[in-house]
Design a protein that fits this description.
170 residues, alpha/beta
Length: 170
């Protein structure tokens, strides 16, 4: 059985968690980790060196899910937009024989502002994460004017197509 680690990155309010949860629920033999749970600290700062411990927690949970034989492991986190952090987390995974499929969700600044305001977040909308370039090998999906269901359907098309192919595993 081919094991698949599905990474979903992007700015806060772009739809990672909503899409990740729906994808997870749509696949049998699957597991889900919202990596932001491992980075839930106040105040939040990517520069805080203590957050590397959160990275280790993510690697550990993902390793356990993959070693447990789940066919699909979905992992969502804003930190996956940072190549150094992403690579550190992936390098910390001890499991073997799995394929990685990466997605970056994006949207316009106007859409992000609307979603931020609708969610009720305090403060001004932060466009920093949105403006970062996608990870080089990621499939980029623009979520503007799309429902969660539409984004999930689009991602499932990619996942099903890629997992049907025999390919390189880690």
């Amino acid at each position: 059985m081919q094991k698949n680690l599905i990474l979903i990155s992007g700015s806060p309010c772009v739809g990672k968690t909503a899409v990740g949860e729906r994808l997870f629920e749509s696949y049998d033999n699957s597991a889900y980790l919202d990596g932001d749970w491992c980075w839930c600290v106040h105040p939040f700062s990517v520069a805080d060196k203590r957050l590397r411990n959160g990275d280790k927690s993510m690697s550990f949970v993902l390793s356990n899910y993959l070693d447990s034989g789940f066919a699909y492991v979905f992992f969502t986190s804003v930190v996956l937009t940072d190549p150094g952090i992403r690579e550190g987390i992936l390098n910390g995974i001890t499991a073997t024989d799995y394929r990685t499929i990466g997605f970056t969700l994006t949207c316009s600044e106007e859409t992000l502002k609307k979603r931020h305001d609708k969610r009720g977040d305090q403060g001004e909308t932060n466009y920093f994460w949105l403006r970062l370039p996608p990870y080089p090998e990621d499939i980029v999906i623009n979520t503007d004017s799309k429902s969660i269901r539409e984004v999930v359907r689009e991602m499932k098309g990619y996942i099903d197509s890629l997992t049907a192919q025999t390919g390189k595993t880690v």
